[in-house]
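Q: Fold this one first, please.
A: Sequence and structure below.
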Amino acid sequence: MSFIKYYNETVLDKKKIKFGEFSYQWALHLPKEFYTFFDENYDFIIDEIKNKKDIGNFHNSFCIYKHEKRMGSFCSKLFHTILPSEFPPVDNQIRKEFNLQKEDFITGILILKKGYHLFIKENSELINLIKKALYKNKFDYLRINELSDVRILDMYYWFKLNRDKKINVMCID
C-alpha cells in the first residue's frame, strides 16, 4: 500500500520526486551520491525527459554511475513516472519473462515499450477486461481510471509473475 500511495502521488498527482524516497519505494539500491545529483538538478532532469523523450541518450548522459554501473532500472522507472503512457517501469523479472536479460537494459526497455504499445493497440478489449476486474470498490486505491494502459499491462505481468512465483514456491514446499 505504501508503494501504491507513493506511485499515485508521483505519477498521477505529479508530486515532486525526492530521489532518496524514489529509490526506496521502487526498491532500487542507489548510492546517495547518485540520486543526490537528481535532487540537485531536478528541473533540468524533468525537462530533459519531457522534451526529448530519449531514454537511450538520457541513460548514457545521466545514468551510468562512476563510468561503470549502469542504472537502467532506475532510468526506466523515472521515465515511466514522468511519461507513464509512453514507458513501462521495467525490472529484471519482466526482462527475464520476455527473454531480454541478455539485451542491454535500455534496448530491453525499448523492445518492451514497443511490445506493450503494440499489444495495447491490438488488444484493447483485454486491457478493458483487466480494468473492469479492477473497478471493484476494494481496488479504489489503485485509481484505475487514471492509470495508463502501459501501467495496467505492466501491473498484469508483475502480478502474474509474482503469483506464479508464489505458486512454484508452494509446490516445492
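Q: Good. Now the second chain.
A: Here it is, same layout.
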Amino acid sequence: MNAGAAGVLALAAVLTLGACGTTFVDETIITEDTAPGATTTTMPVEADAPLDEVMGEIETLMLDLDQRIIDRDGEVAALARINALWAVAEPQIRSNDPGDLFNFEQAIELARTGVERRRPADPSKGYKILVDVNDAYFGTG
C-alpha cells in the first residue's frame, strides 16, 4: 500500500470515528451585538497568490472558527474570507492535483456547514482535517 492510499484510509477512519456525538449551542446564553447597518468587507485575494500561503491563511482562520460560532464573534466574516481564499486555491489544486481536491473540499465544507448551521464541532473537525491535508500536501508534517 502506498503512502497516499494509507493517508486516505487514515482520513476516512478519522472522519468515520469523529462523526460520533452531538453538539448543542444554548441559544439562551448567547447574545449578538451588531450595530445597525454594519457591513463586512473581505480583502481581495490575488489570483496568483502562492497556494501554501493561501491554505495557511485558511488554516489560521479555521483554528478558532468553532469558538467564533459559539461566541457569535466574526464567524460570518471568517467564513467569507475562507470562501474568498478557497476561490483562489481550488482551481490551483484542481489543475495540478485533482486527486487531492476532495480532502481539501471536505475541510472547507465543514467550515461552511458549521457557520451556516451553527454547529461548532463541524469546523473543529474541518480544522483537524485541513491540518493533516496541508501537512501531507505541502510536506510540512
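Q: Anything worth noting on the second one?
A: Residues 94 and 101 are 6 Å apart (CA to CA).
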